[in-house]
Amino acid sequence: MSQPLLLNLRDLACGFHAQRVVQGLNLHLNQGDIGCLLGPSGCGKTTTLRAIAGFEAVLEGEIQLAGEVISSPGFTLAPEKRRIGMVFQDYALFPHLSVAQNIAFGIRQHPDQARITAELLELVKLGALGNRYPHELSGGQQQRVALARALAPEPRLLLLDEPFSNLDGELRRRLSHEVRDILKARGTSAILVTHDQEEAFAVSDHIGVFHEGRLQQWDTPYNLYHEPLTPFVASFIGQGYFIRGQLLSPDSVQTELGLIRGNRAYTWPIGSAVDVLLRPDDIVYAPDSPLKALIVGKTFLGAATLYRLQLPTGSQLESIFPSHADHLPGHQVGIRVAADHLVVFPVPGSVAAQLNLGESGVRRYSTTT
Ligand code: ATP
After folding, report:
1. Rounded to whole angstroms, how far apart are CA atoms 176 and 317?
2. In a domain, 210, yes or no
3. Same domain, yes or no, for 254 and 335?
4. Is 42 in the pocket of ligand 1 (CB under 6 A)?
5. Domain of 291: which CATH number?
6. Are the CB atoms for 121 and 130 separated by under 8 Å?
7. Residue 290: how many CB atoms within 10 A of its CB?
8. Is residue 203 part of a domain?
9. Domain boundary among 226, 260, 287
């Protein structure tokens, strides 16, 4: 059963000195869900987060929280009245307060302050460190304290701005999973800002991909990877290459790899020139296949190997081979297309690209919607 709507951004524009940094932004988050704003540097993620927090005014549209308008042009409900918590990249802990005092800071008047603080200390696995001071903690521990402090007043929504970017690889991965578990255990709704898609995938139920101030797609991680709606999302999420093809029917494309058929129907005219997205998991190792590709690059990943392949026309692809399929660059290998779905975009400048069908031109079969 789906949860009630919590956050609703409607036709939002925000920016500085009337210059729109973000515009036409529509997205919503249900109670208990974790959303993420993902995109390259400068695309407007932090500005959007600050508008939700009430630190930036809205130029157009509105922001609703639990059905109440909290921002609209000329009206900004004060940040402290929103019951929205924040976790920052630099933790922003109070250096002169102990871990327990930091966590209790926002609930000093609460009669159950001691119990709530003890529970949160356990939840973030710092039960034994309540009397330490921030400078006596590692970066990961400090970020856990910041999370517990933000959770203590039971915010209606928690905003996390690049919360793991000061941490290194493995810790970052571990903490992002832990944070998801903690938020889910408490049923806390949250919006995370990051430019790291691995982090976005690890934490979020829904991800919004931003490009130059526009939300390109607000969707599940699965759909962003397998059903990107714009060429930008297709290129930005995951790895993949485009190869040229020609639409033979609404759900099949003729390419130099043969006929590729999917479970989506495209509305471009039959015969349109299209670019077909192929991810490394769409091309499989098939030693006996008559379809051959030249190995031009190789990255050993341990459990698998990522090969960069070149086709006779010069088009390049990537493919994940089992680790034991060990070949050298310069060799030809047999491959097979294993895509059961098809993601195509009209070739820029083609007739199809000029038709006003929306960038993806997708008509989904009823069974897949
Ligand atoms: P990053 O990942 O680098 O933090 P971001 O996607 O969060 O990027 P924003 O911080 O929202 O991007 O910035 C979006 C745009 O707004 C940028 O071009 C930035 O230069 C501009 N900008 C941000 N803050 C201000 C400000 N206070 N005054 C004027 N322009 C600003």
Report:
1. 31
2. yes
3. yes
4. yes
5. 2.40.50.140
6. yes
7. 8
8. yes
9. 226
User: Does a structural domain hold residue 234?
Assistant: no
Residue 258's domain comprises: 241-367
Q: Which of 17, 36, 47, 195 to mutate to test the pocket of ligand 1 (most atoms within 8 A of CB)?
A: 47
Give the Cβ contact number of residue 217 at 10 Å. 21
Q: Report how far ligand 1's centroid is from the alpha carbon of 299 (Å).
A: 35
- CA 122 to CA 112: how far, in whole Å? 16
Per-residue pLDDT of the chain (369 residues; tens, 9 = 90+): 678 999 999 999 998 887 889 999 999 999 999 999 999 888 899 999 999 999 999 999 999 999 999 999 999 999 999 999 999 888 789 999 999 999 999 898 898 999 999 999 998 889 889 999 999 998 889 989 999 999 999 999 999 999 888 788 788 888 899 899 999 999 999 999 998 999 999 999 999 999 988 999 999 999 999 999 998 999 999 988 999 999 999 999 999 999 999 888 888 899 999 999 999 999 999 999 999 999 999 999 999 999 999 999 899 999 999 988 999 999 999 999 987 778 999 887 666 666 555 555 554 433 332
Tell whether ligand 1 has an atom less than 6 A from the beta carbon of residue 365: no
155 in a domain, yes or no?
yes
Predicted model pTM: 0.87
